[in-house]
Amino acid sequence: MLYIKCPHCGLRSQNEFAYGGDASVKRPELNKEISDQEWDEFVYLRKSPRGKHLELWHHVSGCRQWIKVLRDTSTHEIFNTYKSEEKVG
Amino acid sequence: MQKYSFLSLIKNAFSAHKGWEVAWKDPTPKKEYDVVIIGGGGHGLATAYYLAKEHKITNIAIIEKGWIGGGNVGRNTTIIRSNYMHDENGLFYEKGMELWRSMSQDLNFNIMFSPRGIINLAHSDAQMNAYTRRGNSMRLNGIDAVLLNREEVKKKVPVLDFSDNVRFPIFGALMQPSAGTARHDAVAWGYARQADSMGVDIIQHCEVTGFDISNGKIQGIKTSRGDIKTKKVGLCVAGSTSILAEMLNMTLPIETHLLQACVSEPIKPILDHVVTFGAGHFYCSQSDKGEMVMGGDLDGYNSYAQRGNLPTLQHVLTEGIAMFPFLSKLNMLRTWGGIMDMSMDGSPIIDKTHIAGLYLNCGWCYGGFKATPASGFTFAHTIAQDKVHELNAGFRLDRFSTGHLIDEKGLGTKTWIS
Ligand SMILES: Cc1cc2nc3c(=O)[nH]c(=O)nc-3n(C[C@H](O)[C@H](O)[C@H](O)COP(=O)(O)OP(=O)(O)OC[C@H]3O[C@@H](n4cnc5c(N)ncnc54)[C@H](O)[C@@H]3O)c2cc1C
Ligand SMILES: [Zn+2]
Fold first, then answer.
1. Domain coordinates of chain A in residue numbers?
2. Which of A75, B29, B30, B179 is deepest in the core (most CB within 10 A)?
3. Whose atoms come closest to the Cα of A84: which ligand?
4. Does pTM surpass 0.90?
């Protein structure tokens, strides 16, 4: 069982969350010409690293906020969690 | 190569089975090969076998970081089928079915292919309609498909829950009678033994750590046991694809996720077919040893850990018990997991790349075992001829940017949901 510390609610079990994938992916900017290549990168291409991965989780059975989680994809260690608008650096 | 037969068994019995040859050797890597296959799973081994057999290329090395059969080829639940709707998948997997049927003879190794039929349960009129459509598409491609009504399912699988007050009443099912199972280890060993006998070097405990590329061409690979020169490299590393892609500066439409499976204690024969509960996330068959072999859903978040997490297992087995109430009385014998290369449309990639001499075989999701022979056959062709075979022409790497997806399940790019 993973335990995720929601920045709004505190430590909760993974059963309360839904996964949202890679949080480093950026949507192409609005109101500008977007190439097929850019759409491809945004919609389909993923680094899928072994090791540290910044990802989105939805606290769907809790406060219903989207949060960011920095987790290791091979040990499942969670290093830190962030509010969705928080800068990760 | 020593031929396995009833006669050779008797002969060796007289010498207390001390006269058997090793099935494959343990060579030290040479300085240079015509082709290097990375990954000694089912697909890598089958590719080397077909390169040697069909294209007469035998100066080949298979580079495996662990031992052959230690990856997903030895971790899957062995279901073999071709019940796909889209032409690209249907025709490819049906070629596979043809190769499965003759594999034991071709490899002189009993892979225990058991075409016991797969039954996909339906729980609503809408699902019956969808299965009718899928079945018709299959039949148009020459694949056997039968629609079963509730009574027919009950006759074939009486242990399902047919009582009145269930959440998912059984309306009927789609069945592919020629589908089935095979012994996964035997598939790896059978291909390895034949490939070795034709001159392929199977190099185990050797990890690929980098690539030598110049002028946009592959020149060689770097490994934990030294550098190897080659002009052609085939990548067959399944769940590790993204790690090697990073070494190549490539970003792929792939995410690595974990799938678990488990077996119960062995019991007397009770289930004759493979049964899937697709409206939930559960499937089941009974092994020759009597164990119930069960699986279901991904763990649901990117993972390179070859071990699973209990919430998913609990979810899968709860659904299993809803369909097969008797399962609740069994003890669990073993659970395990494997990491899988989930592609963004659920279909595989077998293609050339922008690097000359580098060929890509990945995106097998949780269905790559059944693909083993057809994947090896078409990937060998792609490598040897430097062009795709008509059967893998749809499995292009660039289909995501051109919009030619093969979206069999219509699930979109959330690989962890599928
Ligand atoms: C629990 C589970 C159930 C499944 N059930 C089914 C099923 O019922 N039916 C079905 O069709 N499919 C099923 N699958 C999927 C199927 O097992 C895989 O899609 C398929 O085995 C992948 O191809 P492979 O055999 O070549 O992979 P693998 O056997 O994983 O081979 C890849 C090899 O590459 C090696 N490798 C990785 N990195 C390196 C490196 N840097 N250097 C050298 N070698 C490296 C690995 O060690 C590994 O041996 C299941 C998978 C799992 C995990
Ligand atoms: Zn919360």
1. 3-83
2. B179
3. 2
4. yes
Q: Which atom of ligand 1 is nearest to the CA of B74?
A: 29
Closest ligand 1 atom to Cα of B261? 1
ipTM score of complex: 0.96
**A3-83 classified as CATH 3.40.1190.10:** no
- In this prediction, residue B98 carries a pLDDT of 97
Residues of B in contact with A45 (CB under 8 A): 251-253, 400
Give contacts of B416 with chain A, Cβ < 8 Å: 19, 21
| Contact criterion met (CB below 8 Å) for B259 and B269 | no
| CB contacts, 8 Å: A37 with chain B | 401
CA triplet B341, B45, B192: central angle to 5 degrees? Answer: 140
Q: What is the pLDDT of residue B418?
A: 61
Cα–Cα dist B392/B88, whole Å: 7
CB within 8 A of B361, min separation 6: which ones? B43, B47, B234, B235, B236, B348, B349, B350, B375, B379
CB B360 within 8 A of CB B350: yes
pLDDT at B345: 94
Chain A environment of B303 (Cβ under 8 Å)? 73-74, 76
d(CA B119, CA B153) in angstroms, rounded, equals: 8
User: How far does Cα B362 stand from its chain's mean position?
Assistant: 11
> A7 CA distance to ligand 2 centroid (A)?
7
Confidence grade of residue A89 (pLDDT, cut at 50, 70, 90): confident
DSSP letter at B398 equals: T
Does residue A24 carry a pLDDT above 70? yes
B401/A36 CB distance under 8 A: yes
Instruction: Residue B285: name the closest of B334, B327, B257, B338 by CA.
Output: B327
Nearest to A40 among B256, B303, B400 (CB): B400
Res B24: pLDDT:
97
The string of pLDDT tens digits covering residues B333-379 is: 999 999 999 999 999 999 999 999 999 999 999 999 999 999 999 99
Interface of A with B (CB under 8 A): 1-2, 14-15, 19, 21-22, 36-37, 39-41, 43-50, 53, 55, 71, 73-76
> Can you tell me the mean pLDDT for B151-165?
96
Residue ranges with strand state E in B18-145: 35-38, 60-63, 79-80, 118-122
Are B401 and A39 a contacting pair at CB < 8 A? yes
Instruction: Give B87-136 pLDDT, tens digit per residue.
Output: 999 999 999 999 999 999 999 999 999 999 999 999 999 999 999 999 99
